[in-house]
Amino acid sequence: MKTPYPSTNIIVINQDCLALYEKLVSEGHRPLLLNMANATNPGGGYRKGDGAQEENL
After folding, report:
1. Is the confidence at residue 18, as pLDDT, over 80?
2. Is 9 within 8 Å of 26 (Cβ atoms)?
3. For residue range 29-51, what is the model confidence (pLDDT) as tens digits?
4. Terminal-residue alpha carbon distance, the chain
5. Cα-atom radius of gyration of the chain, to the nearest Å?
6. How many alpha carbons lie under 13 Å from residue 53 in its C-beta half-sphere?
């Protein structure tokens, strides 16, 4: 199978996902931002003030 890119890099960084996404885009990268949403409780714990990744997006 042909792909448009020669390789894919996977990097895990402990940082705010949106701030890091914006930083990488400003540096010319094309990052993927994965929304780890809650399948049984849409919005996760947003109304309770939870701060997991799906609530912060």
Report:
1. yes
2. no
3. 988 887 777 677 766 676 777 76
4. 33
5. 15
6. 13
The answer to whether residue 2 scores a pLDDT higher than 90 is: no
pLDDT of residue 40: 76
Domain count, the chain: 1
Residue 6 counted as domain residue: no
Task: Report yes or no on 5 lying in a domain.
Answer: no
The pair of three-digit structure tokens given for residue 33, joined into one six-digit string: 């931002």
For residue 25, being part of any structural domain is answered with yes
Domain that holds residue 43: 17-56
- Tokens 């994965």 -> residue: 34
CA 4 to chain centre: 22
